[in-house]
Amino acid sequence: MTHFGDRLAAAVRRAGNPVVVGLDPRYDDLPAALNSSPAAARIDERAAACGRFCREVIDVVAARVPAVKPQAAFFEQLGPPGMQALADVMRYARDRGLLVIADAKRNDIGSTAEAYADAWLGHDSPWGADALTVSPYLGGDSLDPFVDAATRRGAGLFVLVKTSNPGGGQFQDLNAADRPLYRHVAAHVERLAAGSIGAEDYGSVGAVTGATYPAQLAELRAAMPHAWLLVPGYGSQGATARDVAGAFDARGLGAVVNNARGIIFAYRRPEYAGLGTTRWQDAVAAATDDMIAALRAETPAGRLVPRP
Amino acid sequence: MTHFGDRLAAAVRRAGNPVVVGLDPRYDDLPAALNSSPAAARIDERAAACGRFCREVIDVVAARVPAVKPQAAFFEQLGPPGMQALADVMRYARDRGLLVIADAKRNDIGSTAEAYADAWLGHDSPWGADALTVSPYLGGDSLDPFVDAATRRGAGLFVLVKTSNPGGGQFQDLNAADRPLYRHVAAHVERLAAGSIGAEDYGSVGAVTGATYPAQLAELRAAMPHAWLLVPGYGSQGATARDVAGAFDARGLGAVVNNARGIIFAYRRPEYAGLGTTRWQDAVAAATDDMIAALRAETPAGRLVPRP
Q1: pTM, whole model, 2 decimals?
Q2: Which of A126, A136, A139 sits opposite B77 (nearest CB)?
Q3: Distance separating alpha carbons of residues A189 and B225, to the nearest angstrom
Q4: A53-98, pLDDT tens digit by residue?
């Protein structure tokens, strides 16, 4: 299996854009056709509806973007039937040529981390993710089993470095030895990335760096030259295309930008209200295309496609 | 539903000891009767075997200890059938009067953290945990939805503060403003604990503090006087009863000590080899009783039971 960093570069080039569609199927937000009785539905019915919703989103975006990012929390919220839906959705996305980044923010100490890595990483694993988000608090030895499994299986990792939430800085921004904690984590990620490098000059190990902190995004691009950046916070969390421009390299590679609610629930946004709730898939398509256009216009991702 | 800190105190008093049995069902380590063909078994067969193994462990320990701690990683490793087994095992343990601490080390930003909290916390949630382990890297606002749900549902949290692995200090021990990161996290946990306090003077929010760092354990007991400590690292990771003595208050409350492999796979330990592999449940019983005796002899937990 090909190196994850190279596969991601190929997928971004093929799509001509770096958009990741976040699959956050909050049941209460589903279009009316899929969520007719929110209070009464049993958990297996809710899981089935969320699975169907995600598959229909995938049908719309598969030809448009390089990757999807299912958020484990919304599937776990639906218990075991939700986890079955997650597995089904991940397979459905892979079968349609999308890379699947499982956003599960897992980690544990060494031998348990091995089990998580075995669970998630690679197409032959039980969940079959192309990449997984992981948390760094437990230290480098907790990340090693993930790195080993990712390297063996052509899969990737995105380590939380600087998250997009307002309180993310409470610990991440604490200064230790003249630089914030997130820069210590970034230095570790860069070592792992440089140690797992592929033909496109990026490693199998990348970083999660929030779009809501544009200055740090450019700083972290420079601090981790070999790490793919997974950038959340675009759209509903307030970040714009211009805010994420600093995450890219000069080729327009090196970053993928996630948008969940702003795309999958676009039918609720005023700018797409004209489509009506029954045409929610058209709203997904329009919001995806609008985000692609914005990133092409305002960031180096515009270099991925020939100028008209 | 009663306050989690009070329920945990009651369960520890009722059992007369603070032992938590970790349910880490590594399929390859199961007794031969449950794992006859490791290479050939399908994932649903492995999940069924792990579920049966955990239920049999629960049958042995339910009358002996206050709580069990299923490790999500080993169930996730078995895909959706593994997650069904996890839900079944958690229910089985609850039905036998054990508190269930789901060791999943979850977290995410606010609105997604809400989904995780809703998934796991409380007996009416899809997974039905009495408590959940969570990671602090994303900051206090990522913990708030967990605290809110725990408070509403009589459930608890254990926030990673100082983990038991050799490399745990890489980030946790970084000095920021004259104290290590883990002390900043501990200060935050103490605020949450003091803000959710019950009749036994402990909050709904506790901390994970590894037994493998005995000096820090006592330091953290003092720094978080209102936080229950969940102490991993006993036994297979090298910590002894004496190492965990500093985690308790003068009543013998305030800490629960986890042991997974050392109990559930005790049939593989030299000291229980005489029982043979077919009597693996007897080895579970003996290892549990031996750990209880050691904690009673070497720690303030001895005060939980009348002196003979």
Answers
A1: 0.98
A2: A126
A3: 35
A4: 999 999 999 999 999 999 999 999 999 999 999 999 999 999 999 9
Query: Mind telling me how many Å the CA of B307 is from chain A's nearest CA?
Result: 38
Å between A230 CA and nearest CA of chain B = 15
Q: Which residues of chain B neighbour A113 with C-beta distances below 8 Å?
A: 73
Catalytic machinery residues of B: 105
CATH of A4-304, one of 2.30.130.10, 1.10.8.420, 3.40.50.300, 3.20.20.70: 3.20.20.70
User: Is 0.95 exceeded by the ipTM?
Assistant: yes
What's domain B4-300's superfamily in CATH? Aldolase class I (3.20.20.70)
